[in-house]
Design a protein that fits this description.
homodimer; about 450 residues; alpha/beta; Guanine Nucleotide Dissociation Inhibitor, domain 1; 3 domains; eight-stranded mixed β-sheet; seven-stranded mixed β-sheet; 16 helices
Chain lengths: ~450, ~450
């Protein structure tokens, strides 16, 4: 439950009330430890954040559930949060900046030679992915060489339009351009999520289902049932270890604990003053950076795209939106689309919705010109995320800054989807990471 | 002068008492503004930090002065800090992991073909460097393509030993591996410092002269003369802008100002809570990361290397030390060497000096086995630097996270050597950046 004040002393202080922190708290309570969860925002859920729009409740943040995300499915089930299939019936559109074409299947329409090269590129990525263990990318054959390259380098010899489609996929998954990613880190991430196509698709992939009431409902209901206090609007500034005690200091006071779990994205964890300092971790964490996403939900009176045989899915190599999906509410009462501005254009986002609406008109015709309502979430402007959907790693970090983001520092342990070894970057990974951190803590309490 | 308490109100609050902050403070005072300098450490000087060792005073941090660093030379002159030539007489050594060879000149002895390829590689870097404007790298021809590549990618086809020598040079200049650097950012940095060879050499280059009493003497004397209070041991946690006022909050209280200059390395600036948030800057700053350097000063009774016709300069492609220089005190009374552990090995540094001494014995014989004294500075373990010598940028950051580290945010301006357009990363750059930030502030006060 949410309480106004920090207790003076607990067994474990958990920093962050996203799904990772809540998972850690629940597992620690189940093991008999006393716990407090300390959250910077005035709400719980972290990157899961849902708000009312028109006749529905929509997600400003993470919103999908896919096959193989078993912890997430079980949690929804347990908390009584229903799920429903993401709409994917109908043809998709590819806007290559010149023309808008319809296509069916998982891969956009290109010329036959381009299509072949796209398939070959995907197969090549799949083959490389299979060689990289998600939990220990440095154990991959030729790990250092893979870590010295970027994903852009891998795509360098592909035709422009094929590269454009891959750029959109990388932007949608990571919120960055391919040049920003270590190839080794990228492959480990794909491996953790079942491969590139699995992460890019709706039916049978990571975008398969949605939550009735939005993904934040999970966090809200979880906190109600959690047998541990949660203190919100309490940014943690310092974590001090001395004589086997950990003191966690927030803007709403301090709590003494026997151990702590920091369950916030690595670039945010870097802003928490650890004492004593953790030099090796600091070098690695400095090398992580959040992707950039502006998420736009557009509500309409009617799902006119469906009426024209379109699924609502669009891949566009011209901005501001790079990808679009149908985002109608589970009961169909609020037709909607959801689009993403990614990487560079998201970092330069100026708040002007007009070019977004112009894209929708280009794709779906005049009916798209008058949305009922529009909700724009610029994740870079969220001070307690500083970007979305996930923190990425540039080349050279894994091999030289060593160890992993999961490595505890004394009695301070780390959770958060970036530390997960399965479904890194997804809600599922957040849950896995929280459980793993809780297990570590239970062993040393 | 150093004072115990922050004033309640000044015209400009300067965060950081390194050379950048002090330069800003002096120029602001000269323009008639009231100023306070707020410093996290219990000393001034930032990455300039000198301590007694044996019969001399040595630099744990930045220590060199080169031709073209006019602000730095003038400052030393004005503050009465004498300089002297770095010792470079005698032959140098190259340790390629198999053999130790002597060489003369600026480029290590390799086979004739390797030597040719090294020269060609340097010429290629020089040609590329000439195309990139230091102050505006995005204006370079094909900037995006250069930013999508790493320096490792540029060196990929070179023979192993040539690459080894370039790795050592990159490690010495940046504290990182070539894979960690955007080629575009790297070229802009070289351009700002007069080119690769200029940054790599002693006589005629960036390591030409040293300061009697160490580089920190500059900061110490400057603070004595500065007509503005300096408060140390006061880490700044928050900078809030509201109604044209800037409130700077440190662990030793807050000061209200009309403007602020943040003069700390970008990854440290990222730990200061800016309110309102600066999303575009936050995305860029997250993408910077400090290099890793462990600096080792070894004092001996006699400069035995000189007696054998050696300059003390060593390039080693095998660690822990990658480069070594003579570091004898200006008066010759304290013979010494200074070596650097770089990038990966610096990040994994475990404090054991034995392998370093073993290297010195390998290079100079048994006499090296018994140092008089030894001072090791692990810059990654310095909480108010988190690495050294400089914050670097990975591929894709400049082109997509846009603008520059110099861009003010409202009434908050940014200094620090990373924001310099001449001698970025050097003491000289720190001075330039402080002056530039002060000029910006004077225009808007």
């Amino acid at each position: 439950m949410i309480v106004p004040d920090l207790p003076a002393r607990v067994d474990v202080a958990v920093v962050g009330a996203g799904l990772a922190g809540l998972a850690a708290a629940e597992h620690l309570r189940a093991a008999g430890a006393s716990v407090v969860v300390v959250e910077a925002r005035d709400r719980v859920g972290g990157r899961a954040w849902s708000e009312a729009l028109g006749r529905g409740r929509f997600d400003r943040g993470g919103q999908w559930l896919g096959p193989g995300q078993d912890r997430l499915a079980a949690l929804a089930d347990r908390l009584g949060v229903a799920t429903f299939a993401t709409w994917s019936t109908g043809q998709k559109l590819l806007d290559d900046g010149e023309r808008v074409r319809r296509y069916a299947g998982d891969v956009p329409t290109l010329g036959p030679l381009e299509l072949l090269q796209l398939h070959l590129a995907i197969r090549r990525v799949d083959r490389l992915t299979a060689r990289v263990p998600a939990a220990d990318p440095l154990a991959a054959p030729r790990a250092a060489a893979l870590d010295a390259r970027t994903v852009a380098d891998l795509a360098r010899h592909l035709p422009r339009r094929v590269r454009g489609v891959l750029d959109v996929a990388v932007g949608a998954i990571f919120g960055v351009t391919p040049a920003e990613l270590s190839l080794l880190w990228f492959l480990a991430y794909l491996r953790a999520g079942g491969g590139l196509m699995n992460l890019s698709t709706i039916a049978g992939g990571a975008q398969e289902r949605r939550f009735v009431g939005g993904a934040q409902t999970l966090a809200e209901r979880w906190v109600e049932r959690l047998d541990a206090p949660v203190v919100t609007a309490a940014p943690v500034r310092r974590v001090r270890q001395r004589d086997g005690e950990v003191v966690v200091t927030s803007d709403r006071g301090a709590v003494a604990a026997r151990a702590a779990v920091i369950a916030v994205p690595p670039p945010l964890a870097a802003t928490i003053d650890l004492e004593p300092a953790a030099p090796a971790r600091a070098q690695l964490v400095q090398r992580t950076a959040m992707g950039a996403i502006v998420k736009v939900v557009v509500a309409y009176e009617r799902a006119f795209w469906r009426e024209r045989g379109l699924s609502g899915e669009v891949v566009s190599t011209r901005g501001p939106l790079s990808v679009l999906f149908d985002n109608t509410s589970h009961d169909g009462r609020q037709p909607a689309l959801v689009g993403f501005v990614q990487a560079g254009p998201a970092r330069r986002w100026n708040g002007d919705a007009a070019p977004v609406v112009a894209q929708l008109v280009r794709w779906f015709g005049a009916e798209a010109a008058a949305p009922q309502d529009l909700a724009i979430t610029d994740w870079c402007a969220e001070p307690w995320s500083r970007g979305c959907p996930v923190a990425v790693m540039p080349p050279g970090a894994l091999t030289t800054a060593g160890t992993t983001l999961r490595q505890p520092v004394g009695r301070v342990h780390f959770a958060g989807t970036e530390t997960a070894t399965a479904w890194t970057g997804y809600l599922e990974g957040a849950l896995e990471s929280g459980e793993r951190a809780a297990r570590e803590v239970v062993r040393v309490l």
